[in-house]
Amino acid sequence: MDMHAFGTVAVAALVTMALRFLPFIIFRGDRETPAYITYLGKVLPFAIMGMLVVFCLKGVSFAAAPYGIPEFLACGAVAALHVWKRNTLLSIAGGTVLYMVLVQMVF
Amino acid sequence: MLRKAFLDTIPVLTGYVVLGIGFGIILKTRGYGAGWALAMSLFIYAGSLQYVVIDLLTGGASLLTTALTSLMVNARHLFYGISMIDRYKGAGRKKLYMMFGLTDETYSLVCQDPVSEDPAVQRERHKYYFTVSFFNQCYWVTGSVIGALLGSVIPFNTEGIDFALTALFVTIFTEQWLSTRDHRPALIGLVASAACLLIFGAGSFLIPAMIVITLLLTGLRSSVEGRRPAKGGEA
After folding, report:
1. Do B174 and A52 touch (CB under 8 A)?
2. How far apart are CA A63 and CA A61, in angstroms?
């Protein structure tokens, strides 16, 4: 048994679980949730989706080829497809295929 | 319900299987086989952290380093719990797993509906949330074990297919944009994160971004809540 590996995996798992459980433990189910937290629960999903988009693109470099062009073309295509057809699977599939074509064949 | 959960998670299926395979392959090449891939995907179940953990394993990092790294990489999960407190309220025995399974992708699928006044509707939603959480982890576990077992024998060029997860977030961002009139929370998330990325760099922008987002949303509260009745409720 590799004790270092075991400990590393256990610590990573416990910290992640603690972060996921903590808000639920602090604001337990049987009590009324504070109005401020309910407010955050309403607006956070909108802000977090923006944060996750940035998080996904964090490794993109504008200083070196291909300067983030495939990512921005594909993200633009996803948004445009979605505004046009409003079909989630179509938007995601269209954008992903375009991105694959761009990184495999064009850039 | 099962069908809807499956259809809704197809983008996650694509992204998780591919990223899971990638994770399993790298883990295997560093000397940790399918058992470790399975254990990590079952118990850590956090994509970006698991990739980081591979380096911690092979680099001989101390447990304190591992704890602090996990905290930095996954602090954003605090936001997911805060958003889901009311939505997951009353989910009973299913709730423990629903809390555990709140990855970025699961969160993006379950955070869409406002809490319903009707308990029957909420019960159905809880079943749906649980199923989505479970399906998503199945995809991730399957991918990572396949990667560790088979190595790099994928029959076609998958470069770029993991963009499916980015596309998922862009699609949901767009859908949210189209279905609400008040775009300030969305803009705050996007602009504050981009600004913090430029200032703090890719490795450490998330926690400053979370702080800035929380402060700005807090400052916006009276204005948003004052507006809400005129908007006719959440979209």
Report:
1. no
2. 5
Calculate ∠ Cα B20-B111-B85, nearest 5°: 110
Structural domain spans, chain A: 1-28, 32-58, 62-107
DSSP label at B116?
P
The answer to whether A11 contacts chain B (CB < 8 Å) is yes
Give yes or no for a contact between A13 and B198, defined as CB atoms under 8 angstroms apart.
no
User: In this complex, which of B7, B32, B191 lies closest to A5 when CB atoms are compared?
Assistant: B32
Q: Which of A105, A99, A104 is nearest to A70 (CA)?
A: A99
* Complex prediction ipTM: 0.91
Token couple for B43: 């118990």
- Min Cα–Cα distance to chain A from B26, Å: 15
pLDDT tens-digit map of B25-74: 888 888 899 999 999 999 999 988 998 899 899 888 899 999 998 998 89
